[in-house]
Amino acid sequence: MLTFKNFNIADWFSFYRVIAAPFLLVLLWLEERELFTWFLLISYTTDMIDGFLARRLKITSARGSQLDSMGDQITFIIGILGLFIFETEFINSNYIIILIAFSPYIIQMLIAYKKYGKATAFHTYLAKLSAVVQGVFILWVLFFGPIYWLFYTMLILGLLETIEEITLIFMYKEWASDIKGIYWALKDKRRIKKEVK
């Protein structure tokens, strides 16, 4: 259970994304596109800061990883909602490909919750790259309008990252955080020890 007194500085940057969500939703409701986009940019920026601080200050933890993932998911969903509200024409023109690309993510979440009872927090290199491209795409669309090569790049990376996440779920019997990717998982002592037992 998360308790405020145990939060470190990196956790607070992650927690910002969670507590900023209602404010962002209000801006969506009021259709304040510019304000919404700037505050969404701040949320995405905290995602880069918290990971950097956790590694630099050596304060990484399973709790922090889980909080980071929660903040990431909430920010991503709110960003997508922003596209639905402010870029309706773009969404309507591409909703089929968006649904096809997004479906594996839903499957991955269901598998994770069934197996672990919570979302994954692998934080692979591919997941980080995918998150950066997603953030850049969403912010670019909200600031300037859609670019299709970036849109397709985001979808492809998202699919590859989801496939990797599903693979890692099947590789780890118990919930684990901060795995760089499948290559590193194959050598991970946490996984190997569980298999030996």
Outline the fold blueprint.
Elements (H helix, E strand, L loop, with lengths): L8 H21 L3 H24 L5 H25 L1 H29 L8 H19 L4 H24 L10 H5 L2 H8 L1
Helix pairs in contact: 1-2, 1-3, 2-3, 2-5, 3-5, 4-6, 5-6
In brief, what are we looking at here?
Helix content is 79%, strand content 0%. It is mainly α and 197 residues long.
Structure description:
With 197 residues, the chain is an all-alpha fold. It has a single domain, classed as Up-down Bundle (Four Helix Bundle (Hemerythrin (Met), subunit A)). It is 79% helix and 0% strand. The protein is built from eight helices and no strands. It starts with 8 loop residues before the first helix and ends with a helix. The model has no long low-confidence stretch (mean pLDDT 88).
